[in-house]
């Protein structure tokens, strides 16, 4: 108790937006109860116009949680339509009072040690978003994505911010100080179809924030057709990524090469702003059929004459590169092109096609 008999503010607030989550809430809320964190905790729930039995389940668990010493704060609205994940998270944060914020989705569940281990990391890294490894349910639902989440090296948490999966630590694993969140946030409240996590993550990086992952599986990360992430179009994510690439990387380069003369590389070229397109000096590839074409003509351009960009064998190309490859490949990190022999079967077992190292800055956009 603080002076005057008022209870001390909780150390960690678990932030839980809820919308029609009755199928998963019992497991989710049980995982809050089972945390082995020895500091004080609260659960801040915001009900975003649920029409199912979510509120009945929450009220039942409120009694159990508060009997165990975990304060429960409940807010929400019963409008005809939900306001969206960004709005719900902001409201849950606003009604909470913990010094640290632990984000949790209502269809996921935490391992007992999650709050304890991520709090320890957040204390050591006060301006970082702390993530963790995950256990995907069902296990075979997104195998490549799950490997990407769990296997990025610590330096890749920053070097791979332009890849297609979005934040390099996924939103349901986030943990950070309230002070840092207030410095960066709030979340975008545009509603359905807005990648509020990616937009916050980019703002976090702009302000010099770090990215840290606890290398233990601390979250059951559920995949199902009703997940909010499915409402975000791939084209929306692509546009945000390209704009962030143009903001953060391309201004440092007077010219660059796009590695991949195929569909993905041409898509990047067409997506760039005119100023960035003019910096593209070539495409490069290993496919002889593409190389024989000699150039790519941007027919939709309003420029006259229409831009014609050379297509070169990768050995004839000059760095720096933006590499557009499928995520099954190995990637470029820290200024060198690394071994990419599994990018294309034509690279296998060929001394001629073994990639050499370029002492340059290269970025992967996949």
UniProtKB/TrEMBL annotation:
GO molecular function: glycosyltransferase activity
Comp. bias regions, Basic and acidic residues: 344-354
A Pfam family it matches: Glycos_transf_2
Domain Glycosyltransferase 2-like: 13-184
Keywords: Glycosyltransferase, Transferase
Annotated coiled-coil segments of the chain: none
InterPro entries hit by this protein: Glyco_trans_2-like, Nucleotide-diphossugar_trans
Annotated spans, Disordered: 344-366
Protein name: Queuosine-tRNA galactosyltransferase isoform X14
Organism (species): Equus przewalskii
